[in-house]
User: Fold these one by one.
Assistant:
Number 1:
Amino acid sequence: MEKYGQTLFTLDSAEEARLALLAEVFDPLCRETLRDLVIAPDARCLEVGAGSGSVASWLCEEAREGEVVATDIDPALLDRIEHPRLRALRHDVTTDPFPEDSFDLVHARLVLSHLPQRDDVMRRIHGWLRPGGFVLIESFCWFPIDSSPHPLYRKVMGAWSDLICGTLGTDSWWSRSQPASFAGYGYRDVGARTHTQNVRGGTPLADFWRLTVHMSHRRLVDGGHATEDELQDFYALLADPDFWDLTPALIQSWGRK
């Protein structure tokens, strides 16, 4: 297995564009749930795998008397954000520590499903939380793809999932059982929401998934996961306003220490 960002999800201009679409499409869902869980004005927050820093920047405004620590294995985009209460760190959540009882809120979006050490990370996060603090984990689950009526869409999306599972140790279905596992990690007041989104070709959501697959284009072809023609037809499909389907579901799970 290779590490996230080694050859897949490498931070370049295409990945920066993909992360911008990620923020546009998924930040509203994240903000709604975080508000419902209630962020104290003086909360100390940890954003794991912060990417472009869109959620971390928003947390700085919500926790206006607190502090936000934003981490990533490559914090280049975070270093561009100028905010007096944002601290950007190069940090590997699987190995690098934080002191016990450091944070009131920990958030990780589209991170843990890519980590073979996800169970250990969940326990580590529990230790970093202060009593009463909460964690929100957001991950994709692939079940809407399995029933797609579009064979090409179903095949290419499935091929991309197979590629990242085999390369990174990603589990595209872990999030489905994630809420039930929270008690075993030591959390209480566990809850979950699942968002299934209708995608139309040519929209920001379709562009996000088109760019997500395209970043692995060469690996998909060279590894025999999909042909050049199949991928080109897939990109055209996601640009076609007449195309409608479902994307992978976004599952949000949370619990308190």
Number 2:
Amino acid sequence: MMMDSEEREGLVVPTPTRDFEEGLENLRRYGLTIVPDALSARQLMEARDALYRAAESDAQRKRSTRFSLDYETDLSNRRVWNVLSRDPVFEDLAFHDIAVSHVKAMLGWPALLGNLSANITGPGGGEMILHADQIFVPEPWPPVPQGLNVAWCLDDFTDENGATRFVPGSHRLNRAPREDELQSETVAMEAPAGSALIFESRVWHKTGHNRSRNIFRAGVFGWYHNHIYRPQENWFLSLRPEIRQFASDDALTLLGWKSEGLGLVNGMSPA
């Protein structure tokens, strides 16, 4: 069953905005909002350098993880897991005011940080399958999102270099795409480096095909969700200890160390 024009709103990417209420309306209407200039020039430079350094370290130690529709021959797309523990600059992204404010508005509080990973797509990199991120929730889905992605553009996201693609308005179907909808028409989330792409967990999306000859495209993806679900990353085992030691109250909540109602220790929050 394909969406009609009213459900899909057309293949429209909302205009980037720093107005918070306008951004929330974009999320309600399209499933996506784009915040321009979310990172300072220094933050962008440090995060980009740290990510490519981490990816190179993984490659040298044969720890690289690939992602695409063809894992055997497509070596252009790389994933770097748990970047939160790779460099302190990624703490600034995971607990950034822009991210936390949208999480609180869209998901309520407390919420959890499920994962902070990165995707780097290289020239010729293939696309992923169209999907929605809350497939862990039985259908029919609730009429509100159970999760939120905050993607930090460390390079320009363009149609040519494989920017994340999505189906505007697909979140309002409250279900994942069916087999006959995997080839649905999509539009690229194009944005300059330093922007934040914020999209909710019901929206259909995928990594795009990098058609460029020599351009890499890197993004750090923060995945946040309702606190009743288990995080993808086990922070209790994988987190650098100093992050917990110096974390803010919001960060402790997102990491599951400060709890309300669930995750208690002897009836009390562990932090």
